Amino acid sequence: MSIAVRIREVGPRDGLQAEEPVDVAERVRLIDALAAAGLHEIEAVSFVSPKAVPSMAGAGDVMAAITRAPGVRYVALVPNVKGAELALEANVDALSVTVSASPAYNEKNVRMTVDESVESVAGIAKIAAPLPIDAVVSCAFGSPYEGDLEPADVDALGRRLLDAGATSLTYADTTGMATPRRVDDLLDRTGIDVGLHLHETRGTALVNAYAAVERGVRRFDTSVGGLGGSPFAAGAAGNLATEDLVHLLDDLGLDSGVDLDKLLDVSAEVARVVGHAVPSRIAAAGPRSRLSSS
Ligand code: COA
Ligand code: ZN
Question: How many domains are there within the chain?
Fold first, then answer.
């Protein structure tokens, strides 16, 4: 099967990090169910300070208990070298390292300057090679602290991260400041061989994804149900929902490898686990192919 669009499912990490802690067994069930629904890359955990993000405690236990489905890449988010060491001990397949284009957000999120974060990517690359290291540049479309950021500066940070040893880049719209025009402006600089991590704060995640797909971007982060948001960014809201993107991609004839019906079952289960409805529109309305039976 050839996958046209690669989706990195971040629900077990970005989706759950701002929720009340979910126990390890439920997180493991979620990750295994996502793999069974056809997700081939899953950000399963983050190795961060449990004081900073209590919901992500127990990352090592989660990694030890999941069933490693063949062909699935299990990723851990890490903020620093210490997190990477823990992730390697837990035998992850790849790392994503969070670095912000916003100096103020970077300080709040990982308590480092941007320069220190770039240095820590170099340190992580030293110990983690040959594992893939995706550098996720947060607030890439604007920051709640500094406002608009120049695409040239955001792109320059991405290039520094590649020089430091990151093997790929993802640009994240942490607080939903992107619009299709701004996606275009950044892609003019970066080219299309990047991932995008989009949030629905202002209801633009799916139009931004569509704009990027039209330009040829083929990597996206999404979260089952559309859960998510950083606890360190005022006004952050859910991620682009995996089912909303898959629904669009299916209609465009772009295979993501994901079985939408199975994914919707996982989404319903996620709503039960977190104890509230999920924001996804497709979860609420059902896919357009599903005829109303009542
Ligand atoms: N995982 C677990 N523990 C870690 C850690 C990691 N990646 N990095 C540091 N620690 C521990 C240290 O060992 C130390 O423990 P101790 O108090 O028992 O000695 C403690 O945390 C403080 O270490 P320090 O380096 O001073 O960290 P800090 O207090 O400056 O916090 C981070 C820095 C990066 C650990 C913290 O801000 C963090 O975890 N941020 C992640 C935020 C996040 O996940 N945001 C959402 C995703 S983008
Ligand atoms: Zn996010």
Answer: 1
